[in-house]
Amino acid sequence: MTTSIGIITLNARFIHSSLSLRYLRNAARRAGYENVWIQEFTINQPLWKIAAEIQQQKPQILGVSIYIWNRTQSFELIELLKKQNPNLAIVIGGPEVSFEKEISAATTTIAGEGETKWVECLESLSKGETPSEETLQRWRTSGNDLPELHPPYIEEDYPDLKNRYAYLETSRGCPYLCSFCLSALDKKVRYFEEDSLRRQIKKLIRSGVQKIKFVDRTFNLQPKRMRSLMEWLTQFSETEFHFEVVGDLIGDDMLAFLETVPQGMFQFEIGVQTTTEKVQDAIQRKQNNQKLFAIIANLVRQDRIHLHCDLIFGLPGETLEQILESFTEVFLLRPHELQLGFLKFLPGAPINDLIEQHEYQYLSSPPYEVISHKNLSAGKITWLKRFEEVFDMYYNSKRFKFSIERLLDHKTPVQIFQELMDYLDARFASRDGLSLDTQYRVFLQTFEIASDPMALDLLKLDYLYHQ
Fold it and tell me: Which CATH entry fits the domain spanning 5-139: 3.40.190.10, 3.10.410.10, 3.20.20.70, 3.40.50.2300?
């Protein structure tokens, strides 16, 4: 009887899918292990049901992929599985356990890119051998034993991906050293073979995948390669493609090309994070603000690419005033979506070296989010949280586009969302579950729009346009 080897994870939502499971399954099968299977669950499923489905497969070895969104549920599941079947060998991996200081004897840990270590671990476990402490330490060390790159998807995957997001890498690694990001630990960038990548994309689209998200940390590191792939992708008019790009690497030739692509087919995520140059230096982020702003403005003017920009609040040394200046500068460029995030102290990220210097307080469990630092009090972080909630409701929802544009003639962006926040705080104990009608009524009353016929017509247009 061949060894039953399972690899599982808990996704945040059903529509998501896991690349790591497929890489590990394929690596095991290439090494000659035949009975290797994967299962994907979601964090909202009852753990007893997940455990029951896993135990039906009678696994002897089980790999569990652990991330920031599933850490708690994953360890509860592992406890349940081990108590149901003490002989089950469990191997854990993923960003959430790649930098663990306390190692459980109940599991084996693999850190970093896992394909090579996983196969080595399977060989040891299937023979009933006990790895040496030196071997275990090597498995627990991130950045070593880098594998050859192989495509993730095989024929059995495609039917399960219909109407879900599919994820792909064209490269691994990142040359940048931003201290808040785990990719700062990567030493070099490696690329997947182009022809096999394109074959995978074709099969994903034929199987009914409607959105493909490329998870390269810097998709446009090689502009010619990026353009060649994007030109090829334009033949798939019913599919959306999402990329993370470094904005100030986009040159004039690429801008000219992007003006020709189908509208809405491609989405760019551009991490601005902060426009405060001293803070950029503190987090080792190289960014030409002037060039970046010009490129974002150009992309918005073209209106071909759906543009998503990111800011991070709580970066070292950044005051509330500087945060709002960054917000205003980026907002006035009018990206289609502006995500206001909060600094996370991810295990292993270099930002952890700045905790003492900047007197950081942060959550010690996921999502490891900032609570305060010496230049930004806990009260100001809470204010920013409320601001972000209102901003999402009124800007990122895109339901008040015409009305907000009208207000910008005589109010600053911060004034608009602060006034909405103050009105809501004074009248609603909670903003959860506010109906759309209530949101429009709040907007109407906050800015006394009834007395301005043009503004009232624009609000009506916003309301009717989004019904």
Answer: 3.40.50.2300
Half-sphere exposure of 180 (CA within 13 A, CB side): 22
Rounded CA gap, 153 and 203, in Å?
A: 9
- pLDDT band, residue 81 (cuts 50/70/90): very high
> pTM of the full predicted structure?
0.91
pLDDT in tens, 19-65: 999 999 999 999 999 999 999 999 999 999 999 999 999 999 999 99
User: What separation in angstroms does the CA of 113 have from each of 27, 55, 110, 124, 284?
Assistant: 12, 27, 8, 19, 24
CATH number of this structure's domain 155-341? 3.80.30.20
Please name the residues in contact with 464: beta carbons below 8 A apart, sequence gap of 6 or more. none
What backbone torsions phi and psi does residue 425 show, to the nearest 5 degrees? -60, -35
Mean pLDDT, the chain, whole residue set: 92
Distance CA 427, CA 438 (A): 12
